Amino acid sequence: MPLKSPQDYVQSLNDGRVTYWDGEKIADITKHPRFRVPIALTANDYKYDDPEFGDLRRYKTEDGGDAHRIYQIPRNTEELNKRVELLSHTSIGTAVSSVFMALMSVKDQVAAVNPQYAENIERMYRYCRDNDLRGAEVITDPKGDRKRRAHEQDDPDLYVRIVERRKDGIVVRGAKLHITAASVIHELVVMPTKGMRQDETDYAVSFSVPVNTKGVSIINRNFAPAELNEFDYPASSHHSMPEGFVVFDDVFVPWDRVFLAGEVQLASKLAQSLGLWERTGGVVGAVESSELFVGLAQLVTEMQGKESDPVAQASIAELITYAQMLKMSLDYACRHYERTESGMVFPNTLAINAAKYYYAANYHQTVKYLHDLSGGLVLTLPSEADLRNPESGKYIRKYLHTKPNVDVEQRMRVYNLIRDLTADAYGGWHFVVALQAGGGLPAQRFMMNRIYDIRRAKEKALRAAGVRI
């Protein structure tokens, strides 16, 4: 199959999918203003003739065909580094297709339990790759009362579960929350939210279904209104993406699309596999945003004439440290890669979890430095409409002047970006995402405790204490 064009992608979304937003059931998302920015953002990743990123977006498959690089299984450091570079220049609507990397990374372990499931994983991966489709990471259940297990809830549907096993497939019911880009992709790839016990076999389930499958509904929420002024919202106006509340109301899944159906020993493996690739994407984004924060901090400092101020310089040094630590961590994780039995190369698990933890645990403190340098104007700056009004605009240009080489409009744009990134629409979304995407801080702590070589550290401590071992 040839690669899709942006127009092909847009047309493919008008397929009868059931989508709600602000109480409205939307018949055709391709014509609705709410979806204009999210669809345009994802469509951009289908520009294979782009002179700047076209070559980065495509690669040759083992069959000699062309495919989007989001589907390339890294086999060496060069391919791994290409994937990391791609994630720096792609939308989240495409990046979520990394769910197939997660599935392919555990395919060997799945095959040891049920070879048919492993074949299904391979088939779905190739189907989506060869048809240039996008898939969403569908993992987080509502969970109800967190003190109780899945099968102990007041409502048994608070975790996605199998309600019927048939000769031709399974029927599932439940919901998944916080599913980024669910309405603008093609396949909903459902993963277990966590490990399951033997008495929870109905909840150990993984599969993939098209978004327009009967019984699937998506209720959307976004951090920004549909129409935003680019001057006042330089980030949100271009980067908004809906979060989907995805409902499976007795959805039939054919056996050839099932990856797990009761084998509880595989539930945690599938859940953890997704965490690695999602956290890798988070760290890649953190490297980009942290460098941007340094640039913004330096700009507002210079615009205020405080470039020699020791307090300002100390704050900028803190931002530089944060940015550099993240950059070095990502570099280390890629250089000290790991490899699956089938040859997939992936970033060092411990390094990625440590980097994601450092990023999330220190993000709010880092933003505080930027806010402290910028001052209250981040929140109170007049809008572009007031700047363009001849009467109010003359006052804005007069009283926002700092020194001859600082253009007032440029200064406003810098402050607007700081507000949008850290104190408004996109910023509010990112405050939560920095902590929760890929699992909250406890998830990274768990993984670090599980895979760190504690025995080696204990032996080193005992030898240092003079204890013979």
Description:
- The protein has a domain at 269-458: Butyryl-CoA Dehydrogenase, subunit A, domain 3, CATH 1.20.140.10.
- Helix content is 48%, strand content 15%.
- It has 19 helices and 14 strands.
- The strands form 4 sheets. A 6-stranded mixed sheet has the order 2-1-10-11-7-6, with no helix packed on it.
- A hairpin with a 2-residue loop joins strand 6 and strand 7 (169-180).
- Helix 1 packs across helix 2 (36-43), helix 6 (99-105) packs across helix 10 (267-303) and helix 10 runs antiparallel to helix 11 (310-335).
- The longest helix has 37 residues, at 267-303.
- The chain is globular and about 75 Å long.
- The protein starts with 5 loop residues before the first helix and ends in a 5-residue tail after the last helix.
Q: Which properties best describe this structure?
A:
48% helix; four-stranded mixed beta sheet; six-stranded mixed beta sheet; alpha+beta; 14 strands; Butyryl-CoA Dehydrogenase, subunit A, domain 3; 469 residues; single chain
